[in-house]
Structure formats: C-alpha cells, structure tokens
Amino acid sequence: MGLAAPGADNLPDFRAQLLAGRSGVEFIETRYMGRVPAGVCRFDQFRYQSKKAARRGTRAGAVAIWAANEALRDAGIAIGDGNRASTGVFVGITEHGNVETEHEIFNISQYNYDVKYWTHHHNPRTVANNPAGEVTLNLGITGPHLCLGAACAAGNLGLIYGAQMLRLGEVDLALCGGVSESIHTFGIFASFRAQNALASHEDPAKASRPFDRGRNGIVVAEGGCLYTLERLDGALARGAKIYGEIAGYAYNSDATDFVLPNPARQAECMLLALKRAGMNHEQISVISAHSTGTTSGDEHEAAAIRQVFTGPRFPYVNNTKSYIGHAMGAAGALELAGNLPSFNDGYVHPTINLDDPDPECRLENIVINKALHIGEITSIMNNSFGMLGVNSALIVRRFR
Q1: Class of domain 245-397
Q2: Which of 70, 92, 95, 79 is nearest to 13 (CA)?
Q3: What pLDDT, on a 0 to 100 scale, did the predictor assign at position 311?
Q4: Catalytic member of 147, 152, 176, 361
Q5: Is 290 known to be catalytic?
Q6: List 290, 300, 349, 361, catalytic entry
C-alpha cells in the first residue's frame, strides 16, 4: 500500500502516529472563511511526478500518483509490457472538480470575469475520472481505470470494485482505494458550517471528537491510500508480502434521506458483509468505526453496531478520524491501512479526544485514548458510510 495522511506519508509512520495518540490536524486559512481546523498531507510530490505534469494536473491526482507509486514499490511490482494492460486503477472519490472550478472563478474575478484568463486545462482537471486517469498517465497503465463516486464510502468501494474486477478476471492487478483533495475547496467548509456540522475547537488537535459528548462536527481532511490487490494464487506464486485477505464486503443504500443516516440499513450492510464472508459477529476482532464527530451520525452508527454485535463477545472498536479528520473519499482506505498492522503487533489503536463518552454512543470495548494490546487479532470490519445513504462494510482477515 501507499498513503498520504495528515501527519504521515508512509504506513510505519502512520501506525506509530496512531499508537502514540498523536493528531495530524492543524489550522489552515481558507478563502472567505479564515482559520479552520483541517487535516493536511505533506509528501514529496515530485518524487514520482514532474513539475510540468503537476502544473497540468490536480491535487487529487498528485495524491493518487504518490500513493500508487508507493504501493507498487511496497509490493515489489514494476509496471511494464507484461502487465500494463492487465492492471486496473479504481479510485474512490467523494467529489472532484470543485477545487479547480472555484480557483478558476476566483482567478477571472480579478480580471472582470474575462474568460480568456480561464485555463485550457480545466476540462481534463475536472472530469470525474481524473485522479485514476492521472495514475495511468504517470505509470503507463493501459488497463481499465475509473473513479467511484460513493461519497464518504468511496475508499471502501475502491477496494470492493477492485476485488470484483479481479474475481471477474477483468484484471490481474488492481490499484485501488481512495483519495481526497477536499481541504482545497472552501465550499465543503462553508456547507458543513451552514449545516452546523463543521468542527471547531481552540486546539485543532482536539477538534475531531467522535463519540465524545463535546463533539461539534467534522474536521475536513485531504489524503489518499491505494493498495495493490491480487488474486491469492498470483500473490502466492510471486511470493508477495500479504497484509491481509479480503474476506467479505457489502454496500447498500438507505433510500431515506440526503444526509441523515439510517442505522437499520447500516446494520443490514454489516450483516450482509458477514454473511458473504461466511463469518458470524463473534469472529470480528476489531471494528474500525466510520463515525465523523457529528451528533446524529455517531449515535446512528453506534446503534447500528449494537444491533449487529450482540453479546457475549463484543469486538474492540476504534476510530481513526479522531487523529486525521474526515478524509472523505480516502477515509475508508486510510482507516483500514491504520488498522492492518494490528495483525502483526496485536495492538488496537485508540480513539483519541474521547474524554467524555456520550451515553447515546455507548459501545462495549471501545478503545479510548491509549492503545490496547489484545494479543491475536484475526479480522477487521471497516465501516464507511456517506451522504445520499450509501453504506459499505469491508471485512479483512489475517492471512494464514
């Protein structure tokens, strides 16, 4: 895998950040709104991308190019004539093109809205397949590519779609996951503020507070995480390092509201993922919770988890957004990445900033503010839910 997260640009550093309880959220200045807490990524953009390509491309594309190259390097795979046509790129996104459109409108406003100052790069920058397409251009991949618009469930959906394409035999290698450039558009911040759902705190590191009684909204973050996904026989044949095995997955729709989640449909999604994995709820070691720090969203997910996971053995629960904020289309992919090393080190990273747990969000075995060593960890359920009622649950098992 390859990743860029607020506070880390590789998995070992990201895992160390999570186990240490160290937030990656900071204040940034955004147009028209001033100072807001946000999750900001820092990585060596020009390690894999020329300055000319970067000027023509997008921030989401740059994140995707970094993550794709790092994932291939981590996997020991080179793209060449033997595999370029059998490799697919499937990238989850929440939205794409807002950043570029906002910047161009602001730019021509300085010139009396004269469109001759509008960039001719705008159309390829704003098409929905841009981040995945930029990866194929960078790496010379000629297999299929697309972006999956699945709101904040998109990171999971990138992995699910990659698994489906492998199972269909459409590709032999999938570069898949999710990316987000959300902090570069003021519209997302303004919209969440209009909904009374934008987090605020005098200390940005404490602004993201899922499940806490004092939570007051979402911390917007950028980031990305892409994985190399293969069929097991191919991975074993080349002696691949295997982080985990996709055991089951599901995604469904609430069909009830534009924004408010439906815990019954979320529970159905988790149950379907368990059924497809051939597992029962007692076989899940860790739940990586989606919870974003909004009042109703956290309550509804907690209710859905309680509906699915009924005693006597309750899995451990944690949340990664408390460290990095909500990375939108990248959220599910990053949150899974942060938890996968638990198969080797036996630790469940905590939810930080959970100083006053909300009784409406009660969950047994939620790990609070300090990493917990529980020994053998065999499976992770990664929850990601999004607007327009899209739900996803991905189960990854320790490979033996």
Answers
A1: alpha beta
A2: 70
A3: 77
A4: 152
A5: yes
A6: 290
The predicted model gives 153-170 an average pLDDT of 98
User: What is the bridge-based pairing of β-strands 372-373 and 347-348?
Assistant: antiparallel
Closest to 140 in 3D by CA, of 79, 182, 64, 184: 79
**In this structure, are strands 2-4 and 223-229 parallel, antiparallel, or unpaired?**
antiparallel
Tokens of 306: 């309680």
Structure tokens at 333: 């992919």
- Residue pair 57/125 in contact (Cβ under 8 Å)? The answer is yes
Q: Are 394 and 382 in contact (CB under 8 A)?
A: yes
The residue ranges of every structural domain in the chain are 2-237, 245-397
Active site residue 145: no
**Active-site annotation holds for 152:** yes
The Cα 32–Cα 36 span in angstroms is: 11
Superfamily name and number for 2-237: Thiolase/Chalcone synthase (3.40.47.10)
CB 27 within 8 A of CB 95: no
CA Rg, the chain, in Å? Answer: 20
With a cut of 90, say whether residue 120 has pLDDT above it.
yes
Query: Rounded to an integer, what distance in angstroms lies between the CA atom of residue 154 and that of residue 161?
Result: 10
Report pLDDT for 184: 96
Domain 2-237 shares a fold with domain 245-397: yes
Long-range contacts for 184-187 (Cβ within 8 Å, ≥24 apart)?
184/59, 184/99, 184/222, 185/98, 185/99, 185/102, 186/30, 186/31, 186/32, 186/33, 186/102, 187/98, 187/102
318-375 pLDDT per residue, tens: 999 999 999 999 999 999 999 999 999 999 999 999 999 999 999 999 999 999 999 9
Amino acid at position 106, single letter: F
Per-residue exposure over 295-318, b if at least 16 CB sit within 10 Å of its own CB, e if not: bebbbbbbbbbbebbeeeebbbbb
